[in-house]
Amino acid sequence: MARAQEVRNLLVGKGFRALYAARLTSQTGDGVFQACLVSFVLFSPERATSAAALAGALAVVLLPFSVLGPFAGIVLDRASRQRVLVVCALVRAALLAMLVVLIAAHHTGPDFYAVAIAVVSTNRFVLSALSAGLPIVVPDGSLVTANAFSVTSGTVVTLLGAGIGAGVRSLLGGDDWAVAVVAGLAAVIYLSAAGTAARAGRREFGPLEPLPWEGALGQARQVTLDLADGARHLWGRRPARDALGALMGARVSVGLMAVMTILLYRNYFGGGDSGLGGIAVVVTAGGIGLIAAAFVTPRATRRWTKPHWIVLMLAVSAVATLALGPPFSRVLFVLLSLVLGFTAQGVKICVDTTVQEEIADAYRGRAFSLYDLMFNVTYVCAAALGAVTLPTTGRSRPVIIVMGAVFLASTLLYLRSARRQRQPAPETGGVEVASGAVSSREVQATVTESALNS
Q1: pTM
Q2: Which of 371, 393, 395, 407 might form a disulfide with 317, Cβ 3.0–4.6 angstroms?
């Protein structure tokens, strides 16, 4: 009841409702687009999928996306985040219209991947804007609940969008024309996302004090300086730095698991629509875990500190991977997806909140861009590791053992660093303030100084 009341209190805020609505519509479109892309590239019977090919596809899509991330942070610390959401939604709608033509023409050449990369890269601005804007519209002491509710809701509607996209494709016959219709549906949803974001005020999501723009050459130099400044700021906040380190370690195992799961359902358990259906079940189980974590994590952080919860989640991930993975059973992989969905979301909610608490608003755009850069580069590196260690079927017990060992190492390393940190008592509002944390009022008081120093 207390948690439901806290969510209702968040929804009373006009700014939070506007940001939340922008997230829901945008991420629904993301889910439909992902269903389109996965079904067209990975699960068409005429297109073979090996570990190397899958790793290459992930690198092509994620690396440009990751390189763009720091530039997104520079923009988000200077431009209206509300305007960024509107423009990005319109751009993605136009790109999806181009994708409709390419898919209908059965084309998977460089131009197809160029458009897909552009869609995913544009999404970097959207997700960074949503994360950077959240502390502006959320009251002090409610960031854990706000992250659990809004981020998890976004994940749920992404899964819902993916289900809608897959369902539309199946109803229309599953051929490339059906996938083109799904791409068109994603374009329509992105147009809706633009309209939703446009209803908010220009400065409603920040930045509180926009940093000044410079000329083209000066701005190019400023990108490097800002990134270095943001990295120093993030590195100097030990709770945020250590939490990110633990998350990146776990991300290696998550990336390997994703590649393995796709290969198993594509080439070992069954391919075509059967494999896509199996992936859908696994993803649904992970989604259920995410939802459960959203309800449990805020309650847990009222009783324990975020570092304690992160350690517990990483340890459970290690045990579950080593216990449920090696038999390579369909049923056990679904259960493993459920557990890892819960633990991964539990860790991420705490890490997101720690970064938001520790980083001043003038640096948040850059901090979350660096966060996402690390997040995606780690994922691509894990995929590359999978390319050289996994067979085409995806079935490898040694790799499963390595995943569990990486989870365990992340647990022990973060436990060691967490013991060095001062552990304050949790607040009754559901979020403990880590040492050195910055409240929104303190953020406003330091913005001018931060802007001048940057």
Answers
A1: 0.69
A2: 407
